[in-house]
Amino acid sequence: MIINRLGKILVLLACLQCGFLESNNAQISIMGIDVQDPGTTLSKEQQILTIGLDHKNWMYNTGEDVVFEVQYNGTQKDPIEVSYAYGLERMRPMKSGKLKISNGKLRIPAGSFSEPGFIRCTVNIDEDGKQLTATATAAIASEKILPTIVKPEDFNSFWEEAIKDSKKTALNTKFTPMDNQGSEVVDVFQVEYQFNNKGDRKFYGVICVPKKAGKYPAIIRFPGAGWVPLNGDIKTAEQGYISLSLYIHGKPVNKELAYYKDLQENELKDYQFKGTTNRDSSYYKNVILGCVRSLDLVYSLPQFDGKNVVAWGSSQGGALSIITTSLEPRIKYAVALCPAMSDYTGYLHGRAGGWPHYFLNDALDEDTRTKMVETLPYYDVVNFARNIKVPMYFSWGFNDVTTPPTSFYSAYNMIKGEKKLFIIPEGVHKIYPEQVDKTYTWLKAQIAKNQPH
């Protein structure tokens, strides 16, 4: 089938560095964050300019002095001029200037800070006409960061009613074999199902099911922002799991790449900004309802073990993992990497807010801004996180520009249930292999605890 051709293209693209454009209104890169770059490592070997902190874990208490440590391993001789700037992430620098490196090393004292948050320092060197840049971000009492977003009084009832209405339409599930995507032990299908959101809506995904007769736990993969569908997770299915990779845009997942490029340039262009002034018209209302109804799909499968559903996602997918877990008590465990959509209103309080950075736009008129302040709390991860009751695993990096750590700590700190966190201090907005390994190992261990012996 033609999905095989798309799959080959995606494999090639997976070898490229993934990430987001930093422009607030820019369309997201082709693959979003859900592609793991096989070459991604955190090794600093062979790097010419690096920056770290005098606390090796990059974490500080309020009142502790923060010192950035710069190292230059290039060919230029002293004196070497370094431009620097530091301040709250994504905000205007508190201080900037130029300093000289001596013997390849430089310390930049930033002083102490009385409020929880993240302080980011960027340094630049001009080496033979080429600009070298390095960044480090200090966490200041990150466990004490509180959200700025306000929870609407009818938040819970709004979503309870919306989910109830969504079930007025039967799933009408359809499975289309994706013959060239399977393996000797796994069947792969495009799955299509329906739900109600002011009319019948469709959702699609790629589902991988073990061929061997039996009852299996299920893992739902929520997609990062973007417009190309996820590949099916055949490797995990081969280990005895049902794997469902959702596509949130209500379009088939078995088309050629040109089909999705057209969506990106037209129907899906800047989809994350659609409906931000009305809670019933938000693009993400349909997305969230489709994600929640995926649990009904899983529970309808004869191969499902009837109890073990877990959620996994990064960036936008991390947000949807949290949101769906909050709204669907049948999810037993969940993972969220560098979750987006957290604490949108941070920018209105002098600090970074979550992707897609709605309030970073200074051109918003007062009426639009007011309506967004009223609407977006219904779609802010912080308010869903408050209701999380099941074990969750989180992972992120402090150098993340797309989903600033200030924003996702605002949500993480609201979760009162069992939670585990793996931090890669130097990490940016990518999926690192060790994050995948650790989170899937954790998920499988949780499922194993719940299996009969």
Automatic annotation (TrEMBL):
It holds the Pfam family AXE1. Coiled coil: none annotated. Residues 150-444 form the Acetyl xylan esterase domain. This is Acetylxylan esterase. It comes from Sphingobacterium hotanense.
